[in-house]
Amino acid sequence: KERRKRGGxxxxxxxxxxxxxxxxxxxxxxxxxxxxxxxLIRQTIAEQVKDKTGRDLVVAGPAAFSFYPxxxxxLHDVTLSGPPGSPATLVSMKELDVNIKTMPLLNRQVEVRxxxxxxxxxxxxxxxxxxxxWTFAQAEGLARYAQADTTGVEGATATDAPGIARRxxxxxxxxxxxxxxxxxxxxxxxxxGTLRYTDERTGKTQSISAVNMKINLKSLSSAxxxxxxxxxxxxxxxxxxxxxxxxxxxxxxxxxxxxxAVNQHINATYDGxxxxxxxxDLEGKVTLTSTSxxxxxxxxxxxxxxxxxxxxxxxxxxxxxxxxxxxxxxxTINLDGATAKGDATVTTGGARPYVQANLQISxxxxxxxxxxxxxxxxxxxxxxxxQAPDAPTRGGQDAIEQLLNxxxxxxxxxxxxxxxxxxxxxxxxxxxxxxxxDAKLRVGRLLFHNIKVGQSxxxxxxxxxxxxxxxxxxxxxxxxxxxxxxxxxxxxAAGVGANFTLEGISALPFLHDAADMKWLAxxxxxxxxxxxxGGNQLQMVQALNGKADFxxxxxxxxxxxxxxxxxxxxxxxxxxxxxxPSEKTDFxxxxxxxxxxxxxxxxxxxxxISPLLRVTGAGSIxxxxxxxxxxxxxxxxxxxxxxxxxxxLSGLEVPVRISGSWDKPKxxxxxxxxxxxxxxxxxxxxxxxxxxxxxxx
Length: 697
Hints:
This protein has 697 residues and is of the alpha+beta class. The chain contains 11 helices and 34 strands.
């Protein structure tokens, strides 16, 4: 009985004791809730941050402490300093709101119920010595420790110099993952954030604003997902990403990243590996589409000239990044309707990106990337300015009738399409300053103005706005060729040099596309060496120097049949002098060479050998004023030989002088020599007649 009485007293005492403690603790907690020790909270947090990072954390605003529904703290006007000696802060924010679940803490598990950064500003900087303000003192110490204690670590060698960071397979920084093994992020948000990056070495600053993002993580062994949007260069971009597992990222081992971003200019996706060390390296599949390269370049801050091309773009391939080197293997690139396949590498960090490529392109239309936007190729005049048959004449007039009925200003040159003078508009070669490049291209079809080039192999070198293009093999108009084209855009007056040799070219379609000349056929050999400099088309024509050689073999003057006309005359048929597209005058050779000096082309050796006809000529073509002064000497001879025919035969020669403007040249035949020696005319006609079996020619 005495023992029961004693035992009941002890129990009563314990109950009173627990009740007292509960009241005291409850009162203490209530006091903390109603009167939180803000100064103590700020001081404790600042000390912990200083110990872990070596940086100063300043909480200028009030600090609030909460117990329900979890252990929480809310700090206002928070700043984290940069490295010692740096006046700029690394991070500043209007409010930091953290709430952690209480019960998991008893098991050393950190489950973040809520983490909100309101209006944070991350100011990332690289100083003039290349030091980054986001590199923390403790992280640097861990790196030094990892290198100093390399005993038994895979990949380390005895010759590794202490104090020098080295990424070696199997070597990872010692991290206390056990402390965050059970980390769980439930509601983590960034509201209206800003990210600035400044490189004091170049003076360039980039800024991303209006960052809104939500992050979710169940554990280090699961995936971290992030969704949100941001604004850059005035353009809102929505993004979504997923990294799994997060543990691999913390251990600097490859993890899987699935990411997508979309805005008005791009729609991009990535699916592959992510490895984070000193930087973030990627290796996986990437796709990108854009409705306009010009719009995309403008958004990225790159100026491109206003050309008609650089429209829709799509890219797909295997992406790999390593530091400042980005490569795309097995790529398929579609631009402006053309397709390119191959490999490309871009290296950044210099004055301009450096592009290396090996591509096979279905079609390359240079007209879309040169000249003014939407401009069509300028019409072209007949080369040499000589009168030439083209199509049936108006009203059925033949050549004799046109000559007899010519207007006072002289007949117009047939097959000539008039055009305005040379342009004085500045030539925009801004594309040459966008990047440096070394590329090998195999092009299925290439277009330049109206000229169509077949399968071609090109080697392109571009450095410091100097373009060197070697055409290793060109297939065009049933022939082939090679040469080079150089463009120097380092000054306002661009320099251009070209050297081409073309063999076996089908002259009729080539000259039709190149010069709108429709009356000359044959197999052509063309050699061209030119150089010029200027800021616009007119200046380049005025400064043009070089030489050009043309040889046409086994060809024809299309539209007029001289032997047929003479046969018709022998039968009294004047209609044989009429022109028709189906008629032609064959020749075995037509050749000329030009020396070009300051835009003036001089020729002294024009020659053509044809049955019944020999032609010589000499004169000049003044390209800047668009005038001509040329004399053609066609000679009617009593010889049906063409191939290897003699050129010094006597015959009926009527010099024709072509002079004046390209638009309205004067064509004046000199009949004085013929009229002064009628006996020679009669004798020549008789000799020609003998070639037609004695008919009365």
